[in-house]
């Protein structure tokens, strides 16, 4: 029908953030309703696109897209406005729409300082994260990747506890440092390709020099240009995930940020690094990622075990969930670095699953803190009898977080373990240790809050209201539904994953890659 649906996905929240400025800041009800309406409209468009993907045609080439838009952007340097949606990005984009809708609903149910500013920044952040997931031109991708930091900075620096300034500064410094390296690598890719283009379909067939560089004055050879470029991209993506040892910004930031921010930050933003590895790391640097996969997989396993052990050592509810997130994100990273279809497909599935679980956990932590005035697990226990509805919802989230069969996280973790075993059995065994530790810290968290003898702080605590339960109910329903029927995510993602893995493993052959690069816009 020639309708630019992907541009519409970007335009709705962007336009809404501009129109929002016409509403008086004192009209809080109108501000909240408008924000919810904008995120709901975006979600409807995105979910409709995902639902119709199975019947849509796929563009030719190793990286086939169901929906694609290409226009000239900066002709002088070969930059294009190129958007695309395939099986890899489809469900992550649907997750993006869902967490921002949920974040706007949470804001509509509470009092927030400078509400107009917060709602405008939330909508602008959704535009940028959607742009990251849809961009197929590296310069356009970098624009959204860096542009995302602007609204995030103002949100994180202005909302949260007294430690938010230091935590925000650490996050920004880490991210900007990694992004600068990625920008240098993008420029190097453009020069190395000789095609005057930043488009992934044009760069796909280009081969950077594999001859090792020599550092002047030293008699040792260093990495090849392709390996240096990959390491620059990998630094940016590893910081965003984050992978140990690039993780130190995450616990402090999660502890200081308010729950509505954590809903979309933990639910989606931390997954963009994993998406970057799948979209660009596997396809643009097949030789380099094959060289470094052993090291990267080892760091992923380290993240799994380290995050789990730290979750066991913490007493602050937010920090427990934050470190559990690092552990589960390590599983996602491990799946990617196996360079197998099972592993990468499991990573895509787990990106969606983890977004659902971590969002529910942070909402539950926020509800507990709201009613008791503390997040210290040593002062919280015996909530089962006082909050039976929260108990039931939390039980589902706990079982999903520890990877119980029949819950949504099991299918993704199992697929990742298959890929890890294919890479080397040792990775699968060590990742299995992380699964055991996940059972330990999740059951410790659940038992500590719900089943131990009551503490003075929990006396007289009220159960959650119906409206709060209705926010959590869709998340717990998805945990159960995707646990018994994970095919909708896996089946849509798998064809695109197979294509990307084939490129990463070089099984498509140089002829196919050259053809694609020659037909780029």
What would you note in describing this structure?
The protein is mostly helical and 521 residues long. 70% of the residues lie in helices and 3% in strands. It contains 21 helices and two strands. Strands 1-2 form a two-stranded antiparallel ribbon. A hairpin with a 4-residue loop joins β1 (67-74) and β2 (79-85). α1 (5-19) runs antiparallel to α4, α9 packs parallel to α13 (286-313) and α14 crosses α17. The longest helix is centred in the last third of the chain and has 32 residues, at 341-372. The radius of gyration is 22 Å and the shape is globular. The two termini are 21 Å apart. Residues 509-521 have low confidence and may be disordered.
List keywords for this structure.
mainly alpha, 3% strand, globular
């Amino acid at each position: 029908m020639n309708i630019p649906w992907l541009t519409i996905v970007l335009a709705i929240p962007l336009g809404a953030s501009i129109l929002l400025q016409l509403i008086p800041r004192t009209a809080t009800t109108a501000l909240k309703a408008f924000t919810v309406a904008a995120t709901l409209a975006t979600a409807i468009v995105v979910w409709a696109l995902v639902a119709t993907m199975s019947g849509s045609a796929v563009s030719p080439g190793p990286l086939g897209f169901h929906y694609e838009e290409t226009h000239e952007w900066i002709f002088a340097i070969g930059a294009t406005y190129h958007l695309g949606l395939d099986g890899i990005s489809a469900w992550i984009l649907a997750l993006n729409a869902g967490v921002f809708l949920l974040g706007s609903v949470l804001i509509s149910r509470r009092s927030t300082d400078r509400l107009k500013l917060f709602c405008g920044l939330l909508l602008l952040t959704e535009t940028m994260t959607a742009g990251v997931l849809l961009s197929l031109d590296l310069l356009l991708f970098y624009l959204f990747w860096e542009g995302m930091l602007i609204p995030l900075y103002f949100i994180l620096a202005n909302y949260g506890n007294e430690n938010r300034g230091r935590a925000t500064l650490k996050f920004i410094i880490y991210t900007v440092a990694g992004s600068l390296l990625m920008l240098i690598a993008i420029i190097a890719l453009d020069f190395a390709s000789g095609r005057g283009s930043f488009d992934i379909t044009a760069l796909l067939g280009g081969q950077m020099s594999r001859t090792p560089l020599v550092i002047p004055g030293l008699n040792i050879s260093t990495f090849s240009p392709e390996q240096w470029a990959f390491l620059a991209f990998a630094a940016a993506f590893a910081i965003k995930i984050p992978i140990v040892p690039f993780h130190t910004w995450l616990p402090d930031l999660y502890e200081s940020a308010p729950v509505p921010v954590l809903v979309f930050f933990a639910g989606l933003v931390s997954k963009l690094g994993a998406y970057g590895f799948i979209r660009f790391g596997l396809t643009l640097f097949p030789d380099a990622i094959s060289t470094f996969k052993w090291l990267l997989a080892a760091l992923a396993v380290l993240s799994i075990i380290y995050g789990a052990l730290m979750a066991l050592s913490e007493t602050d509810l937010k920090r427990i969930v934050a470190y559990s997130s690092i552990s589960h994100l390590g599983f996602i990273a491990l799946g990617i670095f196996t360079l197998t279809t099972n592993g990468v497909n499991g990573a895509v599935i787990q990106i969606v699953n983890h977004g659902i679980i971590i969002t529910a956990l942070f909402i539950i932590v926020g509800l507990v803190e709201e009613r008791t005035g503390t997040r210290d697990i040593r002062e919280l226990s015996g909530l089962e009898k006082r909050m039976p509805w929260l108990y039931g919802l939390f039980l589902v989230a706990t079982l999903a977080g520890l990877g119980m069969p029949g819950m949504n996280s099991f299918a993704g973790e199992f697929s990742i373990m298959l890929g890890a075993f294919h890479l080397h059995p040792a990775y699968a065994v060590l990742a299995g240790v992380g699964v055991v530790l996940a059972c330990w810290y999740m059951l410790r968290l659940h038992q500590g809050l719900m089943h131990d003898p009551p503490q003075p702080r929990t006396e007289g605590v009220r159960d959650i209201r119906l409206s709060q339960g209705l926010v959590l109910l869709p998340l717990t329903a998805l945990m159960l539904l995707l646990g018994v029927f994970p095919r909708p995510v896996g089946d849509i993602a798998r064809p695109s994953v197979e294509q990307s893995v084939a490129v990463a493993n070089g099984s498509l052959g140089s002829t196919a890659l050259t053809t694609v690069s020659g037909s780029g816009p």
